[in-house]
Amino acid sequence: MSEREQWSSKLGFILAAAGSAIGLGAIWKFPYIAGQNGGGAFFLLFILFTLLLGLPLLLAEFVIGRTAQDNAVQAYKKIAPGTNWHWVGVLGMITSFVLLSFYAVIGGWILIYLFKAISGQLDGLTSEEFAVVFSNTIADPLLSVGFQLIFMLLTIIVVSRGIQKGIESASRFMMPALFLLFIILVIRAVTLEGALEGIQFILQPDFSKVTSQTLLEAMGQSFFTLSVGVSVMVTYSSYLPKNQSLPHAAVSIVSMNIFIVLLAGLAIFPAVFAYDLEPNAGPVLLFNVLPTVFNQLPFGMLFFIAFLILFLFAALTSAFSLLEIIISVISNGKPEHRIKWSWIIGLAIFILGVPSALSFGILSDVQIFGKSIFDFADYTVSNVLLPFGALLISIFVPLKMKRSLLYSEIKKGNWIKKGIFDAWYFTIRFIAPPLIILVMMDVLGIW
Ligand code: PHE
Predict the structure, then answer these.
(1) Which of 309, 322, 318 is nearest to 16 (CA)?
(2) How many CB atoms are closer than 10 A to CB 398?
(3) What is the CATH number of the domain that holds 71?
(4) Which of 227, 254, 320 to mutate to test the pocket of ligand 1 (most atoms within 8 A of CB)?
(5) Range of the domain at 123
(6) Domain membership flag for residue 84
(7) What residue ranges line ligand 1, CB within 6 angstroms?
(8) What is the domain count for the chain?
(9) Residue 368: beta bridge partners?
(10) Each residue of 320-376: pLDDT tens digit?
(11) What residues of the chain score a pLDDT lower than 70?
């Protein structure tokens, strides 16, 4: 155990865990799913699920990881030896595998825009022209698969070099910079003519639009953005020294996440309405809207390039965590295996993602249960695998870990009120499992 790597500081851990959480989920996925689900009511439900389920589950994963100080599969084996609970870790690995396969496609889109913006190909285009350029680009099989591959290569290279060197250092200044740029973007977006309708769209709940499907998507979205349900956070907190406060880390990550989701909503929707674009455009929404807003800023293209670099970084830090959870299990702490397996698994993930990348072009006619390949992969991960993983974790913690042990783990590094611990324990034990089952069942039409 003494050879296990640890984060060099508490900030290092929070930055890396926040880096895993903040990514495409908050910036790209949230606006388009909210756009498809009527806006404000979805946003509110997302916040509720984040606070009621996401936050307690995040803390639960932290507790498992730091108690066991081991990877996502071994952690369950250590806490519940001789049982089948380690399959929760295996499920997390499979989910991460599929998630990263389509995640890298969007990562590739960011790279495509980055190259286009840097080479001046986007200068002076109107919003319709942006949309055309973009849909032509992602329909091109070589370009989309090529950039998806580049994104995966970047991920593989960093993960193969080990967690500390790879992930921790750059987060320190990239995250704050991303926040800052987002704030500038929001100020521009909300002061556009006709922005009010967009602000209302995302902030004024219209519950007539809420269906059981909306509930499921809001729950799935809250797990997705917090990286909860796949044991990624179990893995990350296993590198954390004992004297750091887990609740503090969980609360800061959740607040940052909600803040960035709000910024993303306020950057996108005012512009969507101001320019008469479609809020339910799907996965391309952000990519069609953003350049138009940046074009309205002085030195817009420069800002856009800076934004894309930070956005890419946010996506990469999430991608690292997804590959890291798999590699940490397979290489089992041996650095010589880490490099080999990072390449093997990383390239396998790339291959699995190729059909998703092509589903915006030559495979666009292929449908699985009425969805494109990309949408099917995304939907299965967000609304089936993540909730299922989260459900199992919420059953595991109160069942297999002693209450007194949980309390002592949670209060390490910081004094917390017993009442807060009790509330958390109650939520994990009595609220999370039935609520997750209910939301999932309702959609399956089981009752
Ligand atoms: N939270 C990440 C995002 O929002 C995605 C992710 C999910 C990463 C699950 C790790 C585990 O982009």
Answers:
(1) 318
(2) 18
(3) 1.20.1740.10
(4) 227
(5) 10-443
(6) yes
(7) 20-21, 23-26, 99, 224-225, 227, 230, 232, 318, 321-322
(8) 1
(9) 371
(10) 999 999 999 998 877 778 899 999 999 999 999 999 999 999 998 999 998 999 999
(11) 1-10, 163-167, 415, 443-447
